Amino acid sequence: MFSKLPSKLLRTSNSFNKTSDNQIVTTVLQRLYSNNVVVIGGGAMGSSVAYWLKEKSSKSSQNVNVTVIEKDPTYSKCSTALSVGGIRQQFSVPENIQMSLFGARFIQNLKERFGPEADISYMPYGYLILASEKGAPQLDQNFQLQTKLGATNTLLSKRQLQERFRWLNVDDVELGCLGCDKEGWFDPWGLLSLLKRGAAGKGATFVQGEIVDFVFGVSGEPQGVKVRLPSKEEQTLQFDSCVLAAGAESGKIAKLARIGLGSGGLAVPLPVEKRKRFVYRFDSQGTKAPPLRSPLTIDFTGAYFRNDGVSYIGGASPKPEDEPTTENLDVDFDFFDRYLWTLLAKRIPAFESLKVKGAWGGYYEYNTFDENGIIGGHNVYKNLYFATGFSGHGIQQSPAVGLAIAELLLDGKFQTIDLSRLGFDRLITHKPLYETEIY
Fold first, then answer.
1. What is the pLDDT along the chain (439 residues), one digit of tens a residue?
2. Of the candidates 160, 101, 97, which has an alpha carbon nearest to the alpha carbon of residue 128?
3. Is 125 helix (H, G, I), strand (E, B) or coil?
4. Rounded CA gap, 267 and 256, in Å?
5. Using an 8 Å Cβ cutoff, are 7 and 28 in contact?
6. CA–CA dist 386, 180 (Å, integer)
7. CA 275: distance to chain centroid?
């Protein structure tokens, strides 16, 4: 437990002075504090947890020390920094819709919360999700639920789609759903920076280090983590509560806490693993290409595209048998040629003639159980909480999830959105929450 870290450690630089900075970290790691929360992972999710813990505790009598451990403060392989940065309410699980609505309000109020210079380059051009004849009834049902919960979406028939989006081939499309005023995309790095700076400004501490193990007390519960600092020195950081928000690394780190390796309640693993996805940037050389302010369009095949300045970006999840290896983020350009291009060109004829200009790879924190976030406490370790497994939806849900975890820790229950169904318990009771007609 800790006293407050010096302000010189509140930074995003990936370079630690091997003498002075590590000496400061070592000294601080040995101090005691009254209520210490350790957050593992400093991406958007972990930074949001830190922000809301400090925001809420500052308005109450609770004195909470928050320390965020991030292995790579450059975020070079972080899911946050490499995401497409979309936000939408077009889900079929009510909790996902509610979290995205909260995220939309959070984005709209950024300047009020973080100051007049706060900007994440939000592009409110919407999402357009397309359904085949088979999927149309479910898309309609999803729309009804979204509207009931406060989303502003519009259903479009085949004819309406053709009239409104003349660049779209709708021969095998039956129905579309267009998000109107709370959907679009933004700069994920910008949101991460605001959350991290906001948390640090309220007293949270960000420390560069890698979790190598957990330390257990006589009760059998984890009471601390062993952290390897940039100097390669290992220090033990004690905590009262710990939040695991390490993205694609969460499943591996959970094993260090014996989750999935024990008996009884510890026999159930955290089903979060890396899945590599590619995003391609390309120019259209065809006529009637989608104009600049076109919505992010998701075909019922799973292929998607959106504008990126004067170019386009797009991608698709591979078939299960074609999942790429995850030892690095190298891009498979053949995947575009043999699979994605065909899907895009069928839906947008102007993409039959295009030129790939670049691409990047990123990791999904993929929940193999049901592809939805795992939010809340562990069933055995009462001081360990999860905010992970969002399977591509994490950046838009990070504001809501950060607040939800802060509510659990400080209030003892969810207050703003009831996310109980997304807890770890559903893994034990085998009650998955699947999205339907959502890609």
1. 332 333 323 333 333 333 345 544 443 443 444 589 999 999 999 999 999 999 999 888 788 999 999 999 999 999 999 999 999 999 999 999 999 999 999 999 999 999 999 999 999 999 999 999 999 999 999 999 999 999 999 999 999 999 999 999 999 999 999 998 899 999 999 999 999 999 999 999 999 999 999 999 999 999 999 999 999 999 999 999 999 999 999 999 999 999 999 999 999 999 999 999 999 999 998 889 999 999 999 999 999 999 999 899 999 999 999 999 999 999 999 999 999 999 999 999 999 999 999 999 999 999 999 999 999 999 999 999 999 999 999 999 999 999 999 999 999 999 999 999 999 999 999 999 999 977 7
2. 160
3. coil
4. 13
5. no
6. 32
7. 13
Of the candidates 237, 191, 199, the residue with the CA atom closest to the CA atom of residue 58: 199
Q: Are strands 241-244 and 65-70 parallel, antiparallel or unpaired?
A: unpaired
DSSP string, 239-294: -SEEEE--GGGHHHHHHHTTTTTSSGGGGS---EEEEEEEEEEEEE-SSS---TTP
Task: Name the pTM for this structure.
Answer: 0.91
Region at 430 (left for phi over 0; alpha for psi -120 to 50; beta for the rest) = left
Contacts of 408 (CB under 8 A, 6+ apart): 376, 377, 385, 414
Distance between CA atoms of residues 367 and 373, nearest Å: 7
Q: CB within 8 A of 412, min separation 6: which ones? A: none
**Separation CA 400–CA 389 (nearest Å):** 15
CB burial of 180-192 (b: ≥16 within 10 Å; e: otherwise) equals: eebbbbbebbbbb
Of 222, 100, 127, 224, residue with least CA distance to 184: 127
Residue 123 backbone class (left: φ over 0; alpha: ψ -120 to 50; beta: rest): beta
- Please tell me the distance from the alpha carbon of residue 332 to that of residue 33, in angstroms, as a whole number: 49
**Residues contacting residue 214 through CB under 8 Å, at least 6 positions apart:** 222, 224, 225, 226, 256, 257, 258
Q: Whole-angstrom Cα distance, residue 127 to residue 182?
A: 9
Instruction: Give the closest residue to 68 by CA, choosing from 32, 25, 107, 117.
Output: 25
Q: Which residues contact 362 (CB under 8 A, 6 or more apart)?
A: 77, 79, 82, 83, 276, 277, 279, 329
> Cβ(70)–Cβ(207) under 8 Å?
yes
Question: What does the alpha-carbon distance between residue 243 and residue 48 come to, in Å, rounded to a whole number?
Answer: 11
**For tokens 């959350």, what's the residue?**
195
